[in-house]
Amino acid sequence: MDRFSIQKLIRERLFAEQGTIRREAQNRAVLAYPSPYHVGMSSLGFQTMYRGLNEVPGWSCERAFLPDDVAAYQRAQLPLITYESESLVGGAAVIAFSVAYELEIGGLIDCLELCGLPVLARDRSAAQPLIVGGGPLTFSNPLPIGPFVDVVILGEAETLGPALLRAVEGEPNRDALLRQLATISGFWIPSIHGATLGSIAKVEDQDLPAYSQVLTPNTELSSMFLIEPERGCSRGCTYCVMRRSTNGGMRLV
Ligand code: SF4
User: Fold this and answer.
1) Could you tell me the end-to-end alpha-carbon distance of the chain, in angstroms, rounded to an integer?
2) Whether pLDDT at 228 is above 60
3) Contact in structure between 216 and 203 (CB atoms under 8 Å)
4) Superfamily classification of domain 3-252
5) Please, where are the H alpha helices in 58-206?
6) What atom in ligand 1 is closest to the CA of residue 243?
7) Number of Cβ atoms within 10 Å of the Cβ of 98
């Protein structure tokens, strides 16, 4: 495996897509999925955040995925690059991970290593990208990602994700930014809050439903336009990831 074979694969996948967003902006964020493309592109939450973050003035948001063969990347010392512009993920101002469940934390760590970034937040400097965690895991068990990220959005990120990018642009001082975010409900800042989790963020009903941005044949739910007619579950079974979602039970659209 070499850089050219990776670029060829990425370009073939992009060629097969409908709805790819290509955007020039002053600031660059990356939305990263800690599982391969085939898995990530069936995530409606990932697709919704891709669209929402690209609507923030002054920002572009490109996608990156855990490589299909991480070991081959590591052997060849290849860096993680984005799909839209094949830019280095590690060069973005913000890298936001959508984590579905605990087993994907290994993928998050692999992605950080492929970016050439220290895995632990405490070992990174303010000159390095702000690492953000979010996704379904934050409903059920966010604590395990705490050591690896600078900021976690707990729960529904459709509103707080764009707010985070605006805050990053408005406050260049990393410590001041984290202190500012720590005061906002829905953000968990592990370096400030420790193991104390706040409330789960809730998107306004008017911003539902979530729906597909990109259609591709190269995913599990291939070439399907997905739409979320209801969110959450009304039952709250204690063993289920849905039990904390979503802010009062099932929300019908
Ligand atoms: S297992 Fe989960 S999705 Fe199923 S009824 Fe219980 S809470 Fe709802």
Assistant:
1) 46
2) yes
3) no
4) Cobalamin-binding domain (3.40.50.280)
5) 70-76, 105-114, 137-140, 160-170, 174-182, 190-193
6) 7
7) 29
